[in-house]
Specification:
With about 180 residues, the protein is α+β, with helices and mostly antiparallel strands. About 45% of the residues lie in helices and about 25% in strands. The strands form 3 sheets. Strands 4-9-8-6 form a 4-stranded mixed β-sheet. A 3-stranded antiparallel β-sheet has the order 2-1-3, with helices on one face. The chain has a two-stranded antiparallel ribbon with strand order 5-7.
Amino acid sequence: MEIILKEDVIGLGYKHDIVNVKSGYGRNYLIPQGKGVIASESAKKQLAEELKQKAKKLEKIKADAQAVADKMAEVALTITAKVSANGTIYGSVNNVQIADELKQLGFDIDRKLITIKDVKTVGEHKAIVRLHKEVSVVIPVTVIGDAPVAEAPKAEAPAEVEAPVEEAADEEVEAPAEA
């Protein structure tokens, strides 16, 4: 079944695309939700006429998306997360946290436009921001743990405790050697 999309549908297509879907998906979801219409000959002609009229607006939207993409290409995000002792993150870093970080930097990006795989470890990762159907940006995301700050005092405390024990061990070793 051919459907003309009235809005962007993630994983399927963008507004004004003609896509092939299973008939149940089209009849039971896309058409009742107002996300698409059946691609009849008259609907295709109407779409072609509408696209001719909106060509300049679409070019402007694409140019604006490209300008934002150029600005975002220089951005590198650092996200702090709670980390366990073995370096895995409690929970995960997702597109909502990345959208919040971008908002703090002055980019108002919808979280649905951001794609990132499950981030459950500390380190370097990549997020993809799709600003337009032809414009996307890859943003490097560095995930750091907040645990090293908490572990630093703990590491110093055992070092102080171990120092006297080592001296005591040296004295015990020396005493039998003298006798």
